[in-house]
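Quick one, T. Sequence first:
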Amino acid sequence: MDNKAVLKLIKDEEADYVDIRFTDPRGKLQHVTVVADLVDEDFLEEGFMFDGSSIAGWKSIDQSDMKLMPQAESAYVDPFYAEKTVCINCNIVEPDTMEAYDRDPRGTAVKAEEYLKSSGIGDVSYFGPEAEFFVFDDVRFSVSMNKVSYEVDAIDGAWNTDTEYEMGNTGHRPGVKGGYFPVNPIDDAQEMRSEMLSTMKRMGMKVDKHHHEVASCQHELGLIFGSLTHQADELQKYKYVIHNVAQAYGKSATFMPKPIAGDNGTGMHVNMSIWKDGKPLFAGDKYADLSQEALYFIGGILKHAQALNAITNPSTNSYKRLIPGFEAPVLRAYSPHLESLGNQPCAWASDVVHLKEPAVAQELAFARSTCPEPSPNSPDLSRWLALSRQLPPGASSTAAGTRPSRSM
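Structure tokens:
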């Protein structure tokens, strides 16, 4: 989609507003809404000025001017607003030089893709994130002068087996680690997840499934993999839809890594591959039917694991999740099978995933990291950073020939 196609979309949809959106350093979507009559080709080419000093971690008040540059390929119709609104994701640039702002998460992803091409290793990288989340009926917390507390609750929580309800307690709910994945009435979120997935499909997102996850109140929807920046855009829409559909059901969705103790936490497994000249580079005849390039890529991820942890697992709550016994990575290692591999005290794992892709009539292989998390409700960097920061270490090690140690 180009600028002319965006203007046609606005006209065809009879949109009243255009919502220009960007992601802050904590991974949260921000937006400003413009009357559609003001959006023309000049607007899309020249961008929109805003005050960057009010965004945490960005500009000081004396250097606050920043510019949003709409990216036409990201345009979509918002499914929640009563007034018809077209949304466009933006990159951030310095208004004086028009150079990309170095703290813009989306711009970081663009640079990572450019780095891959300049390295000569591949033309495109594909990412398939699997972001889990929790849904609660009641969320309360307090940080005050005399008290620090939090509490979450849900009628389908495993802890509510003896709770008295006005309508009675039917007893149908998953037990601890029992959510993967019985049918209703134990799984009572089928309709809500279906609405989430259907909403994504109507927005043009490529989705494939949904299901209850292992922990009480935990769920996952399936996104089909795509190129780095595009997939990060899709993941922001994924979170946006989940939060808003849950809100419509009177519930609260969170991607926090470990909102409840004693049960599995939320991760974001990421399947990664690099292609060149239309062919996947990771399938081969080495360990686990991987190519040498794939093993080098895994070596880079493991070599830089501790640095990556600062971005992919940025909160104190992250390390409540990364403990033994809850299917979370606790070792820095790689294997074709195990999900609980990764670095100390955190963890990284590179699983090996193979599948047949009829469109290219050959086998694809993905390196799969299990340490990242989607955590947008805790102070974190962003989906773009979490995804794009895994590409340069893998790609640079592929070029340098960094071998991983023995697998587990």
